Amino acid sequence: MAVFPQLRLRRLRRTESLRALVRENRVNIGDLVYPLFVVEGEGIRQEVSSMPGVFRFSPDQVAQEAQEVARLGIPAVLLFGIPEHKDEFGSGAYHPEGIIQQAIRTIKESSPQLLVITDVCLCEYTSHGHCGMVANGDVDNDQTLPLLARMALAHVQAGADIVAPSDMMDGRVKAIREALDKEGFQHIPILSYAAKYASAFYGPFREAAQSTPQFGDRRSYQMDPPNLREALREVEQDINEGADIIMIKPALAYLDVIRRVRDTFNCPVAAYNVSGEYAMVKAAVLQGWLDEKRIVMEILASIKRAGADIIITYHARDVAQWLQA
C-alpha cells in the first residue's frame, strides 16, 4: 500500500472540479420533501415567528406555494393542518371538508405532478393537544387506531399520494393499511414515522402547528432519546405491518439511528430535519455567525451520508435554488 510521499490524499481536494468528481454523497433536489402548514380561511400567509421563512397558508395560498415548489423541482410536500375548531375526538382530522382535505384538492388542481404526503396524527385537531384519544388521563392506544385509519382514508379520498402516520401508537400502520386496502387503495404507500423520538427539537413546530399538549407530554408514546435498539424494533414492526417507507425523526442528533436502520433494513429511509434544527441555523445566520448555504448543505450532506434516501426539511426551497444556481 502506497504511503507518503507517493500517496498524497490532498491531490483530489485541490480544486472544486476535482472535489466534485470524487464526491461520495450528493444532496439532490429529488431527495427533498418540503413541509407546509395549512390554516383555514382565505388570503392567509402568516410567518411563524420562531421559524423565519416558514409560513402558515390558507388553502388558496398553499396552492400558489405548491406551484413554486413544483417549479423548483422539489418532488413532494408534507402537509400539516391547523383547524379552527378542535374537539376531544379530533373530528376535523377525518371530516370530508377538513382543512387538509381542502388543501389536497387545491394543490392537486394547481400542481398535479407534485406528490402530496399528509401527516396522519390527531395532535393538531384535538382540544387537549395529544396524538390520540385520552382516557383516564392517558392516551388510549387502541381507541385511537380507528380514528387514525379514518383520517388516512379521508386524505386519500381527497387525493393524497402518500399517508404518513406520526402518532407513534402501536399498530397504527396495520390499522391504516387494512382501512386503505378495504376501500380499494392498495396502491397508496405508507410513510411511517417509525422511530420518532420525544425530542426537545420540536418546539418551533408546536408553535407553527398550534399543537402543544394541554397537560403532560408525549414521552409515554414517543421514543426515549437515549434508545437505539428500540428504534430497530419500531422500524421492524412497522415494516411487518405494511409500511413502505420508514422515517427517523429528528435527524441531526439521530444520525447513528439513521445509519443503523439503513444497514439493517432494505427499504427506503426518510429523515426529518425538524423545526428546532432549522430554527437554530436561522438564528445563528441572522446573527452573522454562520454561512447559511454552507452550513445547510453540510447538515443535509450528513443526513444523506448517514443513509437517508429522503430528507424532509424546511430548507428545501432554498436548497433547490442553490442547486440550480
Tell me, what's the shape?
Answer: globular
Number of strands: 12
Span between N and C termini?
A: 41 Å
- What proportion of the residues form beta strands (DSSP E)? 15-25%
CATH architecture: Alpha-Beta Barrel
| H/E topology pattern | HEEEHEHEEEHEHEHHEHEHHEH
CATH superfamily: Aldolase class I
Largest sheet: 10 strands, mixed
Helicity level: 25-40%
Domains, number: 1
Low-confidence stretches: none
* Mean residue pLDDT: 95
Radius of gyration: 20 Å
**Which CATH class is shown?**
Alpha Beta
Number of helices: 11
Structural class: alpha/beta
Q: What is the CATH topology?
A: TIM Barrel
What does this structure look like?
- With 325 residues, the chain is of the alpha/beta class.
- The protein has one domain: Aldolase class I (TIM Barrel, Alpha-Beta Barrel).
- 39% of the residues lie in helices and 17% in strands.
- It has helices at 16-21, 59-71, 99-110, 141-158, 172-182, 203-209, 229-241, 255-264, 275-286, 292-306, 316-324, and strands at residues 32-39, 45-47, 55-57, 76-82, 115-120, 134-135, 138-139, 162-165, 191-196, 245-249, 269-273, 310-313.
- A hairpin with a 7-residue loop joins strand 2 (45-47) and strand 3 (55-57).
- Helix 2 (59-71) crosses helix 3 (99-110) and helix 8 runs parallel beside helix 10.
- The model has no long low-confidence stretch (mean pLDDT 95).
Which helices and strands occur, and which strands form pairs?
Blueprint: H1 16-21, E1 32-39, E2 45-47, E3 55-57, H2 59-71, E4 76-82, H3 99-110, E5 115-120, E6 134-135, E7 138-139, H4 141-158, E8 162-165, H5 172-182, E9 191-196, H6 203-209, H7 229-241, E10 245-249, H8 255-264, E11 269-273, H9 275-286, H10 292-306, E12 310-313, H11 316-324
Parallel strand pairs: 1-3, 1-4, 1-12, 4-5, 5-8, 9-10, 10-11, 11-12
Antiparallel strand pairs: 2-3, 6-7
